[in-house]
Design brief:
- With 733 residues, the protein is mainly α.
- The protein has helices spanning 12-18, 23-42, 46-61, 66-83, 91-100, 107-124, 132-142, 148-160, 168-179, 190-201, 206-225, 232-241, 248-262, 270-277, 288-303, 314-319, 330-336, 344-352, 364-376, 382-398, 400-403, 407-416, 423-438, 478-493, 495-512, 515-527, 532-548, 553-561, 565-578, 582-591, 595-604, 612-625, 631-636, 644-656, 661-671, 701-727.
- Helix 10 packs parallel to helix 12, helix 26 crosses helix 29 (565-578) and helix 30 runs antiparallel to helix 31.
- The relative contact order is 0.04.
């Protein structure tokens, strides 16, 4: 550069410093330029200001000498800082030479150009909007710059240009600029300013919101027309972070279209989408449109999960880039202070390398974390809880192997959800628990080993001469027995749950799983129950369900005949636990047509403590005998010769009852038995046995009677201990 050329009003010292190869000297020159321009501003000397800018642009920024260009860039930035709010009057002269330097072959110069433009825009702020097109075009060129420093500088400038501004006039100007761009396919750059448009959509001005909605609507139409050219992955998180009240409907509408158009491309963002969508499902009719859009999003997203997502993806994860999912770099996260606000610039870089990206994988861990968080949140609405449980059920169906890695952490909350106020929530919860308990994937844990202690319900029941004592229905997995144990434990701790929802829960489980397995396992667990009062109450509940519920029809028929070893084994298993409740034990004998044994049991009732509760249970049994369940039993009263012990057992119940309505009911029934003389029991030992159950080879009835005596002795001992504590409250046990 010709140093003797007249560069006034710039002094020779300033000119020499601007051309120096050292940054510090160029910086000193910039400070002198800033001081000089401030004086011109104070004098309102615009001619001299323009002259200084022109010299810096033509003689320095556009010079052939690299150090001169660097000096020109820092000088232009200094002019902008000195001009302050007046810089908008000179923006074209300031911006054009800087943008030219964006194309420089020297990466350091491109970086200094970013730095200079950053300072110019930072001072001018909204005044740069009329130059939005050229700025946007320049930034787009730097988005894929190979130099990391240049790319970092462009990202800083990118964030500055996002215009997070509450000024209505600024918002209006931005929209006007977007509407007036004729020569650029803005759909290609939509990830760059979609975030800003949603910010503007929350403007306080109704007119600005209306105009913004129109612009967004036009973009959405274009997206539907050209889905193949849309960068869905880059905009998914933008929709998620803008799913708050004012713009929620628009966000949900876009999200719905994205999921339907992009398909599995959005799967990596599933956890964020669910975070935004799930709360909307519990909205009332005041937000009906938002709720419907959210429901459509939820349904469409759920359909994207397929069995292929259960395939191990470790290999694809090792091949993928750490940034390939569009997540922000550590630097970007630190700058924003908010993980969700992803830099659209870094996303563009990912898309440029999209051909190298692996197949889309499901963010299962993130989804489960979101679902679990909503289950734990007591403020979560009913419809949201139902949707969460539907998601869990769907994931266990489609991706069982991966889901069982999360079962231990989900299981306690699923059990707790059984106490929910909504029957529909409980029903969905039971569906999830039933799938966990019956899925073949549950046979092994995450490490591939099986917990042999709980994997099978192996019973050892004296009194049953059977080699195979397991249920005749298909076996459950390792979680089934764990589920039964914890369910009974919950009933024990929450007696209100047992009283209000116990029957409902057990009946639904009998539909979802195998009724025989449910009763077989519960009976086995209750056999070891230390709380005898709870055991008696639970047996009474199970017995009522067994005798009255339509869901147990098949199981009742299986027990009614006892034709197989399996049915005999089930009877023995139930009997030994049913002994916790004498009346329930008799009713089980009635159900299985073991009338002789029922009579023997009733004979022992004289040795028991007959309480009001006991008599009420006998009263209920009489009512059951008159119900359709025991129609076959009443018809057998016609065959007195072959059912003498049935009649004697019923008379035994009659003798137990006080003069009550139940007494009158049973007495009237027995008075209808034909020819009372045939009620006599044959005493001759050579006479043929009439009660068909006495010839059953698979059951040792004498051992069962002994077991009944032992159980009742335990109950009597516990009652005496309680009575002793009530009489001597200060006595130490």
């Amino acid at each position: 550069m010709n140093t003797e050329k007249d560069f006034s009003p710039l002094t020779p010292n300033i000119v020499r410093a601007l051309n120096d190869k050292l940054y510090e000297k160029r910086k000193v020159a910039a400070l002198e330029i800033e001081k000089l321009v401030r004086e011109f501003v104070a004098q309102n000397n615009s001619a001299q200001i323009r002259h200084v800018i022109q010299i810096l642009a033509t003689e320095f920024a556009l010079s052939q000498h690299p150090h001169s260009r660097k000096g020109g860039l820092i000088g232009l930035a200094a002019c902008s800082i000195a001009l302050g709010k007046d810089s908008g009057l000179y923006l074209k002269e300031l911006i054009d030479p800087v943008l030219t330097c964006f194309n420089d072959s020297d990466s350091r110069l491109r970086y200094y150009a970013c730095e200079a433009l950053y300072n110019i825009v930072k001072v001018a702020r909204g005044a740069v909007l009329p130059h939005f097109n050229v700025l946007f075009d320049g930034l787009s060129k730097l988005a894929a710059d190979p130099d990391p420093n240049v790319k970092s500088g462009s990202e800083l400038l990118d964030r500055l240009l996002k215009f997070y501004n509450n000024n209505g006039n600024c918002h209006y100007a931005i929209i006007h600029v977007l509407e007036s761009v004729p020569d650029i396919n803005l759909l290609d750059y939509l990830p760059e300013f979609l975030d800003g448009l949603f910010q503007i959509l929350g403007d306080s001005s109704k007119e600005i919101r209306r105009i913004c909605e129109v612009v967004l609507g036009e973009f959405l139409k274009e997206i539907k027309k050209n889905p193949s050219s849309v960068k869905f992955a880059e905009m998914a998180n933008i929709l998620v972070i803008h799913s708050y009240d004012l713009i929620q409907l628009t966000s949900m509408t876009w999200m719905r279209e994205f999921i339907q158009l992009a398909g599995r491309v959005v799967l990596p963002y599933s956890s964020g989408i669910l975070t935004a969508v799930l709360p909307c499902l519990s909205y009332d009719d005041r937000k009906k449109s938002t709720k419907e859009a959210a429901s459509a999003c939820n349904h469409s997203l759920m359909k994207l999960v397929t069995p292929e997502d259960d395939v191990d993806d470790e290999e694809s994860q090792t091949k993928s880039s750490p940034q390939s999912d569009g997540s922000p770099s550590k630097k970007e996260s630190d700058l924003n202070g908010n993980y969700c606000r992803i830099s659209t610039r870094s996303l563009i870089c990912c898309v440029l390398c999209s051909s190298d990206r692996p197949a889309v994988t499901l963010d299962l861990d993130g989804i489960v974390q979101v679902l679990d968080r909503h289950l734990h949140d007591s403020s979560t609405g009913m419809m949201t809880r139902i949707a969460v449980l539907k998601w869990l059920y769907h994931l266990y169906i489609k991706t069982p192997r991966k889901m069982f890695k999360h079962t231990d952490s989900l299981f306690p909350m699923l059990l707790k959800t059984l106490s929910d106020e909504s029957d529909e929530v409980i029903l969905k919860d039971l569906e999830v628990l039933a799938e966990i308990a019956s899925s073949p994937a549950g046979q092994t844990d995450a490490s591939g080993s099986c917990d042999n202690s709980d994997s099978k319900t192996e019973l050892h029941i004296p009194g049953c001469k059977v080699t195979d004592l397991s249920p005749s229905t298909p076996s459950m997995n390792s979680y089934f027995y764990k589920f039964m144990i914890n369910l009974l434990k919950r009933f024990s701790l929450e007696r209100k749950l047992l009283e209000m929802r116990g029957a409902f829960i057990i009946r639904q489980l009998c539909l979802l799983l195998h009724a025989e397995n449910i009763f077989h396992s519960m009976a086995d667990i209750l056999l070891k129950e230390e709380d005898l009062k709870f055991a008696s109450t639970m047996v009474q509940t199970l017995n009522t369900i067994l005798l009255t519920s339509a869901e147990l029809f098949q199981l009742r028929n299986q027990l009614k005949d006892l034709r197989t070893q399996e049915s005999c084994a089930l009877f023995c298993c139930l009997y030994r636990s049913w002994c916790h409740n004498p009346v329930a034990t008799v009713s089980l004998c009635f159900l299985t047509q073991n009338y002789r044994h029922a009579y023997d049991l009733i004979q022992k009732f004289g040795d028991l403590e007959v309480t009001v509760d006991f008599l009420m249970e006998v009263d209920k049994l009489v009512q059951l005998i008159e119900s359709p369940i025991f129609t076959y039993l009443r018809l057998q009263l016609l065959d007195v010769e072959h059912n003498p012990y049935l009649i004697k057992a019923l008379y035994g119940l009659l003798m137990l009852l006080p003069q009550s309505q139940a007494f009158q009911l049973l007495s009237h029934r027995l008075s209808c038995v034909p020819n009372p003389e045939l009620m006599r029991t044959v005493e001759d030992p050579k006479a043929p046995v009439k009660d068909k159950r006495l010839a059953q080879p698979h059951i040792d009835y004498s051992e069962l009677l002994q077991h009944f005596d032992r159980v009742q002795s335990k109950h009597l001992e516990v009652r005496h201990q309680r009575a002793g504590r009530s009489e001597h409250p200060d006595r130490k046990l």
